Amino acid sequence: MAQKGISPGLYPSCSVMRCDVAVIGAGPAGSMAAKHAARTGAETVLIEEHPSIGHPVQCAGLLGVQAVEASEIPLGSAALHPVCGAAVWSPGGRILRFNASRVRAWVVDRRLFDRALAVEAVRAGAILQVRSPVRRIRAQGDRMVLDITGGRSISARVVVTAEGVMARIARQAGIGPSHVVLSGAQADVPFQVEDAGRVEVHLGVSPGLFAWVIPTGPASARVGLCAEASACQHLRRFLSSPPISSRLLGSPLGLVFGGLPMGPPDRTWAHGAIAVGDAAGQVKPTSGGGIYPGLVSARIAGRVAAEAALAGDNSASRLSEYDRLWREEVGRELVVGMRLYRLMQGLSARETDQLLELLSRPKVVRAIEEHGDIDRPSRLVARMLPALGWSSLELVGLLRLALR
After folding, report:
1. Tens digit of each residue's pLDDT (9 = 90 or more) over 339-349
2. Of 163, 239, 325, 340, most Cβ neighbours within 10 A?
3. 392 by DSSP, 3-state: which?
4. DSSP string, 242-263
5. CA distances (Å), 383 to each of 145, 287, 402, in order?
6. Range among 10-19, 48-57, 275-284 with highest mean pLDDT value
7. pTM of the predicted model as reported, rounded to 2 decimal places
8. How many CA atoms lie within 13 A of 151 on its CB side?
């Protein structure tokens, strides 16, 4: 078992650190994979390019209750407040409000959340190396070598790459890209919050996904969106639009931007390496959230990587077990989500308004409030079908097709 501890990456220049499993990226997926690799008995190193965990933040910080459960930690001070409702704005200005009787999600401080997960990985036995950007991956005999900036290297039997959407090391290892990568931007703003327990979804703001308003306190919110391109420009226009500008209490306090991968590659494994989280496109296309599928997949990745390393078999065929297992757990949700995403992308503004009119029926609203689940949207769609009735046969047919 590896010695528990945190290292700033200051071991002598040109030295080679040897381990069973090396995990690239100390975000939620990487830390979870490292924890379970170490728990399985593998000497594990968790590699983070930045000097601290949880920075920079590249996430809206809204976790469904299943994602919280999958994190295997109490939220504690990372929890800002619960979310029980949502308001969906149509392109034509119609607002559809939902109010669930129980907590559906939590708004969290991602810095604290990410750090708590990394601490759990270290407690399990992983060694954390910060300030360690990985430049390339290469095979050397029966091991994989990671060359790190500054002349250092880490030699591992199996590499788990949780490096995020760019996934440069995953590409070098032979793992393909996601099917779609959107551009995302988000600002922390002083904001007139009407109900901190309700998030907002704005449809038709930009081509790509949707815009959101997530309250972080009584007078602050995260306002962001995803687009096919130029997310920052779309965000500036959104912040200037009447539904948002009328509630701004000041200038944005911070801006983050990045990519959002959707649609996993055909395989998330290669000789000596597996990909997890954003690097594997394990993101829900209906919401853009990747914490839940990433954590579930990372737990599997850590165990499979450790077992393969300890058995001395890092072959592609051995590591393909990971791909099969994670798809059994969350793959169907991603497939259904991608179909729903493409269905929504094909709707005009007028058709989107008509869709919200259908969803405003009392029976449908009750179904959404009772069964709404941002982590498992297919379950909600299945519950909505009976409530839609026979007067919307075309929509019912499309939704049934998405669920196949």
Report:
1. 888 888 888 89
2. 163
3. helix
4. HHHHTTB-SS-SEEEEEEEEES
5. 49, 18, 14
6. 275-284
7. 0.91
8. 6
**What sign has the CA pseudo-torsion 292, 253, 208, 245?**
positive
| pLDDT tens, position by position, 309-331 | 999 999 999 999 999 999 999 99
Poorest-pLDDT segment among 17-31, 59-73, 115-129, 371-385: 371-385
- Is the pLDDT assigned to residue 92 strictly greater than 70? yes
Instruction: Tell how many helices (H) and how many strands (E) occur in the chain.
Output: 13, 19
DSSP 329-343: IIIHHHHHHHHHHHH
CATH 3.40.50.150 correct for 62-108+180-261: no
Examine residue 207 and say whether the peptide bond preceding it is cis (omega within 30 degrees of 0): no
Q: What is the C-alpha to C-alpha distance for residues 170 and 130, in angstroms, rounded to an integer?
A: 20
Can you list the positions of beta strands (E) in 344-386? none
- Whether the CB-CB separation of 177 and 167 falls below 8 Å is answered with yes
Domain 5-53+111-177+265-330 matching CATH 1.10.3720.10: the answer reads: no
Q: Does 233 have pLDDT greater than 80? A: yes
